[in-house]
Amino acid sequence: MSGDDSADHCDTQSGDNEYVDTLATADRATRVELGINLLACIEDEELSLSAAVDRIETVTTDPSLTREILDTAVMRDVIDRTDGQLQVKHGTAIRFDKQVIKRDGEYECRRCGSDLSTGHFLQLPAGELGPFGPSCVRIVLGLES
Question: Which InterPro entries match (predicted)?
Fold first, then answer.
């Protein structure tokens, strides 16, 4: 991969208190699917390209992969891109009580980098994405600005 992919590495805690890097083994296709799944579940009907990229950066910071995620989402009719704006066309809202799992442990938020004692993990069709803090998970899903 090219570019700075520091956001691609996510330390999570396994059941026996060992840390596991959940996205380290994810291939490019899996990252594309995670990015598309994330765009599809955003609650905002319309958002700026920069806001979409902010969310995609929880999956990757590689510019070519970000472009591939956006282009593939357009081709699959998940989003529509017009003049720097995205409209979510075919998405499924996340059920916060069922598809956001909380785990206690020592984590770092994928969005803002804050230390966390409880991580929030999104359960997406392509896999799990997280950890996030309580505010960042809501921002990533478009429930807060």
Answer: DUF5830
Burial 92-102, CB ≥16 within 10 A → b, else e = eebeeeeebee
Q: Under a CB-based contact definition with an 8 Å cutoff, are residues 57 and 23 in contact?
A: no
What are the pLDDT digits (tens) for 113-127? 999 999 999 999 999
pTM of structure: 0.80
CATH of the domain at 57: 1.10.10
* Beta carbons of 56 and 42 less than 8 angstroms apart: no
45-77 tens-digit pLDDT: 889 999 999 999 999 999 999 999 999 999 999
Domain contains 51 = yes
Write out the residue range of the structural domain in which residue 83 sits.
24-88
Rounded-to-integer distance, Cα 28 and Cα 52, Å: 19
The residue to which tokens 């319309």 are assigned: 46
Domain count for the chain, please give it.
1
134 within some domain: no
